[in-house]
Write the structure tokens for this entry.
Amino acid sequence: MSDRRVLLVPKILVAPFLILGVATSVLHAQLTPSAQSDSTTKSTASAAAPPAKTTPRHYQTKLPESASQYYAMLWGVDSFTVRTVESGELIRFSYRVLDPQKAKPLNDKTKEPSLICPRAGAKLVIPSMEKVGKLRQTGTPEAGKVYWMAFSNKGRLVKPGDHVNLVIGGFHAEGLVVQ
């Protein structure tokens, strides 16, 4: 008998709220006749369209302006991007050269770049392909051109949204967000 009372109590408490909710929606529909046709149009449109890809608020997708100015002034580069490519098997870092003389160390063949992801505890390196060589550009930098290098992400340890640090000799870029 006590089990029956426990089951009936929630129904009794919820009933007034359900009635109030139904009455409010009926009243709203009567006051705004176009709302009904708009809501049906919106529901069919939202069902057909895929959900929009959004970036969570806590992900920083761009370097702060002060950091951009620092890299431009000291290293002669800007416009850093870090992206997953080839289904996440590679991480591509690209940058634009502003001052070729200052940017020379980034294209130096003797300096071995590494991409460090503290979250995953991973240090990624640039792979060397048998017929292609290292997956990076090492020519003399030219102003206004964009250069890139690709890091092996075997096992997909680094994921979009991760904050990574790039090290090339004395050059350090910290807190870059993988897109």
Residues 39 and 45 are 10 Å apart (CA to CA). Strands lie at 77-85, 90-97, 114-117, 122-125, 128-129, 133-134, 146-152, 163-168, 171-177.
